[in-house]
Amino acid sequence: MRDKGIKGIKGIKGTMRRAVAAGVCAAALASALAAAPAQAQPARDKGLPGAGWRLKDTGTDARFRGLAAVSRTTAWVAGSKGTVLRTHDGGRRWRDVSPPGAEGLEFRDVEAFDARRAVVLAIGEGEASRVFRTDDAGATWTESFRNTDPRAFYDCLTFFDARNGIALGDPVDGKYRVLSTGDGGRSWRVLPSDGMPAAQPGEAAFAAGGQCLVSAGRRDAWFATGGAATARVFHSADRGRTWTVADAPLPAGDPARGVFALAFRDTRTGLAVGGDYRAGQPSPKAAAVTRDGGAVWTEAAEPPPAYRSGVTWLPHSRRAALAVGPTGTDVTSDGGRTWRTVDQGSYDTVDCAADLGCWAAGERGRVARLEPAGG
What's the whole-model pTM score? Predict the structure, then answer.
């Protein structure tokens, strides 16, 4: 007992030291990004002075809107033509681990528990919406859900832990539909809709980057909407059984406008990004922040200059985050109040692991990892 206790204390101290070191690195990385000059031309793909994206050759032209960062060495991406790829060496090599027979599916979200276990979501009407799970790094897959309601269309999924998760579907009979799993995505059931507020006419979620539904902690989840008169964010504190809803000050009033992605640092502090996804259309007020769990959203004082479809907090930082979209990457170092464009390459989604392994993915097989100077 005594030896185990000493070993345990040493382990805790080691974890604390690593966390402190990672926090310092996160702050330094955020500062390097913020200090980097914005790119004057699109996608040089050679990183930025100080820090920036470094492209990794995936060997495919699939568009990746699903991304799960496990670490600096391991990441999963999922996208068009039923494509799922996995790397375990920092992006030097990518293994095609696509589920057999999935060529006609559109994968828009992937949630990875570790290097071997992951769940992917295919979107679409009726039976096009499906969920698959692997426990052996993609060597084999099990289809754990296939939608049989022609009115339903599923958009995103999230997990609270290795067992409990939910998936979001667009409104059916005037209310958003939510699936729930309690066994890590091996089986799913539709939750009752009596705790769900009514949807606005024309309102839906955007399956743009796997971040229209997110979670923080053991029970809290949020999902983002658009396409209606007002952009909104829904919040559940009981794993999707009941929901409240709040207006978000992002572009709305058109099927192409709304909140496209969310990121929560904890159960109180969150970011929302979006705008108008049509190329060339203005997207004023394309970001907002909440500090009360989503009850009230405040527009960014200096938002990104255009539509953004992905957002993530930098690990171990209370103020730094990244947002991405087809026209660039933005960084905030003040918790979402102001944003600055630091790259003009096209990405649809972004995610960071606890060891500061930050990845981005998008069109034409583009996947990149955030690198320090000289990385």
Answer: 0.89
Cα separation of 171 and 193, whole Å?
10
- Token code pair at residue 131: 């969920």
The one-letter code for the residue type at 353 is A
d(CA 337, CA 142): 43
Beta strands in 315-372, from DSSP E residues, in sequence order? 321-325, 328-332, 340-343, 349-352, 358-361, 367-372
How far, in Å, CA of 74 to CA of 236, rounded?
30
Strand, coil or helix: what is 230?
coil
- In this predicted model, what pLDDT tens digit does every residue of 203-227 receive, in sequence order? 999 999 999 999 999 999 999 999 9
Task: Read off the amino acid at residue 94.
Answer: W
Write the single-letter amino acid at 217.
G
Percent of the chain with pLDDT over 90: 85
Q: Does residue 255 surpass a pLDDT of 80?
A: yes
Are the CB atoms for 186 and 215 separated by under 8 Å? Answer: no
CA distance 278 to 257: 9
d(CA 291, CA 17): 28
Using the predicted structure, report yes or no on whether residue 240 has a pLDDT greater than 90: yes
- Measured in Å, how far apart are the chain's first and last C-alpha atoms? 44
Secondary structure (H, E, C), 235-299: EECCCCCCCEEEEECCCCCCCCEEEEEEEECCCCCEEEEEEECCCCCCCCCCEEEECCCCCCCEE
Answer whether 256's CB lies under 8 Å from 278's CB. Answer: yes
Q: Which stretch of DSSP H or E encloses residue 14?
A: helix 2-35
Neighbour order of strands in the sheet with 257-264: 257-264, 270-276, 287-290, 298-299
Mind spelling out the 3-state secondary structure of 172-184?
A: ECCEEEEEEECCC
pLDDT in tens, 76-129: 999 999 999 999 999 999 999 999 999 999 999 999 999 999 999 999 999 999
Cβ atoms of 82 and 103 within 8 Å: the answer is: yes
